[in-house]
Amino acid sequence: MLLFQSAKHELKAGQDRLRALAANTSAVVWHTAADGAVAQRNPSWEAFTGQSAQESMGWGWTDAVHPDDRELLMEEWRTAVEGSHGFETMYRLRRHDGEHRYMLAQGTPVTQDGKVREWVGVCVDVTESRKAELALRESEERFRFLDRLGQATRAQTDATDVMATSARLLGEYLGATRCAYADVEADSNRFTIRNDWTAEGVASSAGAYSLDLFGPQATSNLRQGRHLVVRDVDRELGDEGGGRMFNAIGIKAVICAGLVKGDRLVAMMAVHQATPRDWTQQEISLITEVVERCWAHIERVRDNAILREQDRRKDEFLATLAHELRNPLAPIKYALAMMRRARDASQVEKAQDVIDRQVSQMARLIDDLLDLSRINRGLVELKRERVGVLQLVQSALEVARPGIEAAGHALQVELPAEDLFVDADPTRIVQVISNLLGNAAKYTPDGGNIRLSAAQRDGHVVIEVRDNGIGIPPEQQGQLFQMFTQLQHSTARAKGGLGIGLSLVKTLVQMHGGNVSSSSAGLDAGSTFTVELPLAATAGATAPADMRPPEPRATGGMRILVVEDNEDGRQMLVALLQILGYEVDSAPDGAHALEVAGRFQPRIVLLDLGLPVMDGYEVCRRLREMPEMRGAAIVALTGWGAEKDRARTAQAGFDAHLTKPVEPQTLQQTLDGYA
């Protein structure tokens, strides 16, 4: 009896030791009968799995094995039992806390008289090393995938191709149902799926959508850069939370990764699954990285496309500029040749008119270029005043009428009975209206109809220029107001131009807080350009400017010194001033100018800035130091005409600033002001 109690006590002690070992180590000691079934208690197994002795008996122990691993484990175990050979495998085993752990299982048969009596073995928890191994393998696979994605898209130069390739490779890699890339509009609500990849037999989702379809919570998350991750649409989303939309396209699980730049949602990548799916963190992270890489590549591709387009337009512009500058030169040379051979005054007068018109045209081209450059650099300040629209229209018509009449167009003008007033820079708004009228004349075949109207609408003055000219094809209407743009259909049917006029119009109108738009029914259907400017807060007329040229004044032989290094320019200006009745001397550079000024003692100096050796600023400073020049006026006459250039000459001591080529009338008015 004592011997029996001692054996029983020893058995219990052994079981306690096994339980303590199982509870504090990652090893499980097990044993089975010869046929592989559990025939007696396995305390180590019970402590690790939480199964009772009764639950683990027979083949009940397999209930603790992960369902996905159970079939393969049983097949390997039966093969070992039938062959009576050692056994080693890896599977996932449910621990007593419910977590499945990776176990490396090893077993060996115990034989007696050549027959298997039982099996003994051990299971070691290798979860951490297994996770590390899987993480390394997944990292390598991820790296290989991203490298393949980079190789596939590196040479692509079209943004849509980059989207399509990225979506296809990602969808295939994840075994998804559909993968789509979308650009989000500037309003952060509308998004457009331009291209998607789908598994065989699955419909495309390409099209435009509202972000609100995702539901308020998901929409808010996406706009803040948080992904939408749904593992089971029916279980996790209600109809208002996006479930209705996803079910409508047969989707039960989705990851939508949003890309936020500068606090704005700009793009999304969505991976769809037709069945519920337990997305892993690694998959979510991979999709995020693909979106960022794809967007970065697309930005580069789009930037390069913009640069190529700008380069192309620059080349076209330079070719057009050369053409437009040569055009006036030809009639000028012909007119000069005719003047040399003319036998009567009418031929000379005709040649002079040609030269005057063509030089004025060249000056307008250059002024447009300079204006656009200054405006784009923020160097133009509007000189606003309250001015009536009738005055603005009248001034614009004076500028544009010669071109309209030369083409034989019929001009219809419709103006309100009572004047409308705007707070605007009159010169700039006249420039806008005359530019639109000039465009209408240029792009309308000779003998066409042009209508100019002004009216009040919704607190704005609406100025409209309509023609029955060559029109604008729908696909080209979005390009109208881009810098250096001339529409393809117009190049053979218009009468020249640099393609900068409408860009200048748009910029000037926007600077006034207004808007300009265009419409056309298509080719040969005419065009309409509409300018909207805010009405002045209160009515109040400004007296119309006196457009009549001032009466000539007697010069009284006033002495003028011309300092100009261009020989032809200097001689022609001297001759013109002498014809106007002034006493004139000249100098080709600064040193000679100082010498001539000392003995000639002019009342006025017309001084170029870009002189050799000593520039105009230095010449001006030295002239001011000469006692003989005390009281003389020094006027800059230069090709530099920006506001900063005028400010610099004023600061340097010049009395006035004239920009080449100066109109003779303007020149005489300036000179007479110092008489």
Automatic annotation (TrEMBL):
One Pfam family this sequence matches: PAS_3
Phylogenetic lineage: Bacteria, Pseudomonadati, Pseudomonadota, Betaproteobacteria, Burkholderiales
Top EC class, one word: transferase
Domain Histidine kinase: 320-537
CDD domains in the cross-refs: HATPase_EvgS-ArcB-TorS-like (cd16922), HisKA (cd00082), PAS (cd00130), REC_2_DhkD-like (cd17580)
Organism superkingdom: Bacteria
Organism in which the protein naturally occurs: Ramlibacter pallidus
Assigned keywords, A-Z: Kinase, Phosphoprotein, Transferase
Record's protein name: histidine kinase
Entry-annotated residues carrying 4-aspartylphosphate: D608
